[in-house]
Amino acid sequence: MSELPRSGRPQGDAPGKKHISPAGIAGAVLLAVLWWAAYSRVQGVSSWLVFDALGLERESHVALALEFFLYDTAKILLLLVALIYVISWLRAGLNAERVRDFLTGRKRGLGYVLGALFGAVTPFCSCSSVPLFLGFTTAGIPTGITMAFLITSPVINEIAVVLLWGLLGMKFTLLYVAVGLAAGIIGGAFMDAVRAERFLQPFVIEAMKSPIRPLSFAGGRARLTLRDRHDFARKETSTIFRRVWKWVIAGVGVGAALHGFVPAGWFAENLGAGEWWTVPAAVFLGIPLYSNVTGIVPVMESLLSKGMSVGTTMAFCMSAVAASLPELILLRQVMTAKMLALFLGYVWVIFTLTGWLFNALQGVLF
What we know:
With 366 residues, the protein is mainly α. The chain has helices at 22-40, 42-53, 61-91, 96-104, 108-121, 129-138, 143-152, 158-168, 170-193, 202-209, 226-261, 265-271, 278-286, 293-305, 310-322, 325-331, 337-360, 362-365, and strands at residues 216-217, 220-221. It has a two-stranded antiparallel sheet with strand order 1-2. Helix 3 packs antiparallel against helix 11 (226-261), helix 5 runs parallel beside helix 7 (143-152) and helix 13 packs across helix 17. The N and C termini lie far apart (52 Å).
């Protein structure tokens, strides 16, 4: 990971200090505008390439898989660059030890809640959450808190809440949100209880043990310039991007194949009997799939309308958005196999228990 320079005097007084010129600021603004223009048009361009330029049938498996691949690859790579740059830019002047100490003391429980709540208000799918998870982890945020974010972020967002409310009603929506937040908070506490940070990749552990500190001088603290922050953030972004970009493409490729070729109706036909084993089986089958929570809401409505029990439906859909095979491919770059197994085991257990509970209470609650 990139290191900030150390100095015995404030950089503000250093001879030959570099500032960002007006032209540099204008260039940064232009890049930000171009990034937003590209990000906001990814879906439209992907659809145009597949259906207009290539002329593929709109309902064909190949077309659906290819559109998904183009859209999610571009979206995640753009997010990766932007989020890692912004987090690194903020990290450059952040007293990471102070933040870490605050969140590891008596405030640890509050940290799990804040991590889960932050995940709930960020509109990311399971793969898009990985760049933020990586940024938080390397900034020294405790592993349990980052895991609370990672679990909750793909499960809940405001658009999904609105859709759920409109399609399935207030009671189901509130229960869904409560389960999603609880899964993140409990998961964070569990990961800290088993000291899951031991199972991160060595470069992540090294970054956590040696968080970036603000420059100091004569017992004081130097004020970083915009150029200092930019140089550090640019190096961090380049380092991380080179490490994971090919895994983004591989992961999304797997997700696209699942998205295009696995029919949602199969699950209702084979898991709709309501037997006890259908819940763990639904979670097991849902984990490899790749969908965002907004896209899973209509699937949830369809499964319920076809007679699948509430608990089995909720367990399947939550597992499908909380974890995915593409996400696991990305996370493998920052987690060892042991930590991935912990993560998957927790997701399987918590959503299986949730499904059994709601199946048992279905007659009372609905």
